[in-house]
């Protein structure tokens, strides 16, 4: 933890959350992540050793607690960081969220985020499988809801209900709130094939980023296409 040696509330706050990856860890804990391995999966480039160190720092600062079930959760002090994190999302969307660098379009991370945000309560039972491919990347993915959604990078052998095909950029834009799934689908930026009911179920289940409303307000569409 960096010490600035200044008796100032801004300086003290920066000492707690200003180190690399700390804000990402708080971001993920705010949006429902609780497990160590989930924090690793959601932050490529964050090593296990560094995550261990950052979580220890946050616990010592009274921002994070670790319960008997092995879950990490924000304390009241940690939850009070939500306006700050959302404020960063708003500022970033308004002032620094231009076109993505190709190196930022990580399909593994995108699909990790996307499958965790799916609302599977209305999908057909006992199993609903979405096969995801990209026109600009060779990896394939399968999202399997039975009923909780899980992500596979090898063919699980189940019957496919919906096939999704897109560029990485198009799916990122839709997930992050710069575009609406219904509009991207109608334009053909995102192809969804399957029965009418299955495609409809996917539309209902699709959950955008927790900050998509902020991104949409700053950069994206105001209302669905008619």
Question: Could you give a quick summary of the protein structure above?
Answer:
This protein has 226 residues and is α+β, with helices and mostly antiparallel strands. The protein has helices at 9-17, 22-30, 36-41, 48-60, 76-79, 82-95, 107-117, 168-176, 181-187, 196-205, 212-218; strands spanning 64-66, 72-74, 128-134, 137-145, 149-152, 162-166, 190-194. The N and C termini lie far apart (51 Å).
Q: How big is the Rg?
A: 19 Å
Distance between the ends: 51 Å
| Strand segment count | 7
Mean pLDDT: 94
Tell me the structural class: alpha+beta
Report the oligomer.
single chain
SSE arrangement, N to C: HHHHEEHHHEEEEHHEHH
Strand portion: 15-25%
For the record, what is the CATH homologous superfamily label of the largest domain?
SCP2 sterol-binding domain
The major pleated sheet works out as:
5 strands, mixed
> Can you name the CATH architecture of the largest domain?
2-Layer Sandwich
Widest beta sheet: strand line-up: 5-4-3-6-7
Q: Please give the domain count.
A: 2
Here the CATH topology of the largest domain equals Nonspecific Lipid-transfer Protein, Chain A
Which of globular, elongated, flat, extended, rod-shaped describes the shape? globular
Write the layout of secondary structure elements.
Elements (H helix, E strand, L loop, with lengths): L8 H9 L4 H9 L5 H6 L6 H13 L3 E3 L5 E3 L1 H4 L2 H14 L11 H11 L10 E7 L2 E9 L3 E4 L9 E5 L1 H9 L4 H7 L2 E5 L1 H10 L6 H7 L8
Parallel strand pairs: 3-6
Antiparallel strand pairs: 1-2, 3-4, 4-5, 6-7
């Amino acid at each position: 933890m960096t010490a600035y040696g200044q008796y100032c509330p801004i300086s003290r706050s920066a000492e707690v959350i200003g180190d690399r990856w700390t804000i990402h860890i708080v971001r993920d804990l705010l949006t429902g992540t609780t497990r160590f391995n989930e924090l690793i999966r959601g932050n490529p480039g964050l090593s296990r050793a560094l995550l261990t160190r950052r979580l220890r720092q946050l616990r010592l600062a009274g921002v994070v607690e670790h319960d008997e079930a092995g879950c990490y959760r924000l304390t009241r002090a940690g939850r009070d960081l939500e306006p700050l994190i959302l404020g960063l999302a708003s500022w970033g969307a308004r002032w620094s969220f231009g076109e993505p660098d190709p190196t930022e379009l990580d399909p593994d991370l995108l699909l990790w985020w996307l499958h965790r945000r799916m609302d599977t309560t209305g999908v057909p039972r006992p199993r609903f499988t979405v096969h995801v491919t990209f026109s600009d990347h060779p990896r394939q993915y399968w999202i399997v809801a039975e009923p909780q959604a899980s992500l596979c990078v090898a063919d699980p052998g189940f019957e496919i209900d919906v096939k999704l095909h897109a560029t990485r950029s198009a799916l990122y834009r839709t997930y992050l709130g710069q575009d609406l799934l219904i509009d991207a689908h109608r334009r053909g930026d995102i192809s969804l094939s399957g029965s009418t009911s299955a495609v409809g179920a996917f539309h209902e289940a699709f959950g955008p980023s927790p900050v998509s409303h902020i991104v949409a307000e700053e950069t994206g569409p105001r209302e669905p296409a008619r």
